[in-house]
Amino acid sequence: MVRGKVKHQFIENNTIRRASYRKRMKGFKKMLSELTTLCGVMACAITYGPNAQAPEIWPNEDEARKALTRFQNCSPEEKARNVLTHEVIVKKRIEELKKQLQKQIEENRRIELTNLMYKFMKEGPDALRGISYQDSIDFEAFLDERRLLIQKKMEILKNSN
């Protein structure tokens, strides 16, 4: 059975919240277990449940101590390499989005110039009235690029016959 979309907000009802906590902790521990088994990595979890007297440790206290000791014994460079702060994650995401935006801007510009080319082919020189100087330079470069592409394709066809 497929679960519906879950709103990420505090659950007001205590009974439902405790039941949700138990189910999610069970799933979390299962995922950690699968991660350690399938990928051969050390992992541990220390959780402070809302009604627990002491923290819950997974898989057990000895294994958790080994994992934490190993992490603490790492050099600061190793720790920094393996730990991502929220700031680092956000900066990486911003860089990805900037690249994505630049690609979209270039694609939109290519589409604009293609449309202008078709308009020019249909209407003639009147289609170019009122375009900016920069647009005319870009349009000329675009047409040269298209001309070279057509010449290359013609050369390939000529050589294949």
TrEMBL record:
Primary residence: nucleus
Domain MADS-box: from-to ranges: 1-61
Gene Ontology MF terms in the entry: DNA binding; protein dimerization activity
Record keywords, A-Z: Coiled coil, DNA-binding, Nucleus, Transcription, Transcription regulation
SUPFAM superfamilies xrefs: SRF-like
Subcellular compartments: Nucleus
Cellular component terms per the entry's GO annotation: nucleus
Transmembrane regions: none
Coiled coil feature spans: 87-114
Pfam families membership: SRF-TF
Gene3D superfamilies attached to this UniProt entry: Transcription factor, MADS-box
Cleavable signal peptide: none
PROSITE patterns with a match to the protein in the record: MADS_BOX_2 (PS50066)
InterPro entries: TF_MADSbox, TF_MADSbox_sf
Protein's name in the database: MADS-box domain-containing protein
